[in-house]
Design brief:
Layout (H helix, E strand, L loop, with lengths): L2 E4 L15 H5 L8 E7 L17 E6 L11 E2 L4 E2 L4 E5 L4 H12 L3 E6 L2 H9 L10 H12 L3 E5 L5 H11 L3 E4 L6 H4 L3 H25 L4 E7 L14 E6 L2 E6 L7 H20 L2 E7 L1 E3 L25 H11 L3 E4 L5 E6 H13 L7 E6 L2 E4 H14 L6 E4 L17 H5 L8 H13 L28
Parallel strand pairs: 6-7, 6-9, 7-8, 9-10, 10-13, 13-17, 14-16, 15-19
Antiparallel strand pairs: 1-2, 2-3, 4-5, 11-12, 16-18
Helix pairs in contact: 2-10, 5-7, 7-8, 9-11, 9-13, 11-13
Organism: Artemisia annua
InterPro entries: Epimerase_deHydtase (IPR001509), NAD(P)-bd_dom_sf (IPR036291)
Pfam families: Epimerase
Amino acid sequence: MAHLLSASCPLNVSSCSKNGPNSLKQSLASLPTSFTSRTSVQPFKNLSLNRKNAQRLFSIRATTLQQPGTKAGSGSDESSGQQSRPTRVMVIGGDGYCGWATSLHLSKKGYEVAIVDNLVRRHFDDQLGLDSLTPIVSIHDRIRKWRSLTEKDINLYIGDVCDFEFLSEAFTSFKPDAVVHFGEQRSAPFSMIDRSRAVYTQQNNVLGTLNVLFAIKEYAEDCHLVKLGTMGEYGTPNIDIEEGYITITHNGRTDTLPYPKQASSFYHLSKVHDSNNIAFTCKAWGIRATDLNQGVVYGVRTAETEMHDELYNRFDYDGVFGTALNRFCVQAAVGHPLTVYGKGGQTRGYLDIRDTVQCVELAIANPAKRGEFRVFNQFTEQFSVNQLASLVTKAGEKLGIEVKTISVPNPRVEAEEHYYNAKHTKLIELGLEPHLLSDSLLDSLLNVAVQFKDRVDTKQIMPSVSWRKIGAKPKTVSA
């Protein structure tokens, strides 16, 4: 049963980055006047490695109050030529890798931004003994530093979108014009550790997105949903991948249908379910939505995160959350052979984190129509794993780093050699100016890895999750 605790006095919610969720309860007594809080304490779903049944995160809403003299965003209605209030954008999952960079970018551009996050991504690190290569401070310190540098406020709502009461309050309080939804468990390996992680991934992702859809329907019917999907929904078909839809002629009749989905993990399957639910509600309720089927993102710096070390974005390199390019850069920096899974022919779309924030801004500035479900393939280049290893090897040589490559057994169930040609024109047509994977960017990534190589835990580099050996019992990934 949920217990509601209303706080009538000024409070400050400290981060649970390293001390775990209990520190949130203990810190409710010492908040500065820049935050107000309403807490709903529920059975705590922390996916504990030692529990058979996980309980749910309790929710804390901490909303920053505008200070005297604060400069709010200065957006305007360009279509009418008249000054209006800034477009209000709710970034769900705004403490995460893509969400944090996007929140700062939109705030800098004059949007009024609210971050909604339950901080569970930080808790996953505590569970599995992982850590970002780059040191990251609490979400509260991040937001305070951003305000001190820019005089721009970012509102903060700490809570779980699976808690509809919390989400309803966030919606009615902030009144978003657009919602950017990053708030999902985003790791395929995490979803394949064991039954509890598979169930958590689908429950959190699918039900959380359903709650967002119902919140838009009930409280902000004209709000534009910008949802982060994944190119992994498509799989690796032996035909070109279109952007969301494909026109088919069958038995003399022609129709345009959703592109067939071939998800390759419980995580990717959750994204497929999301897409179907969003498409249905666009038809049934007239919701406007853009599904950004994103490729693999690389890079750690944007113009905003470079402003101060307290604004650093996270850099995952481990076998659960780290992507191939990040892993390769860290492996090169510490003298570990690059670990290519299997034959290394696995080909995917890639893009720079600077292009992620650019794509989201373009989607917001050019919203879908009421009842429209748009799908954009969000990537700029395609690479195979072998190609990435070769690029990192050459970049390492320029920096005087000897880089070797080895093949390791592929922990995933996937084609290791395949045709791959995905279309990605719609965002370019809206004005995307891509940052391509150049030598200078690889040098930058390698230099970041070298700068923080003392923080590398080499035990986390090798794959630790097998698609074929997923179990029903809770499993601890070795730290």
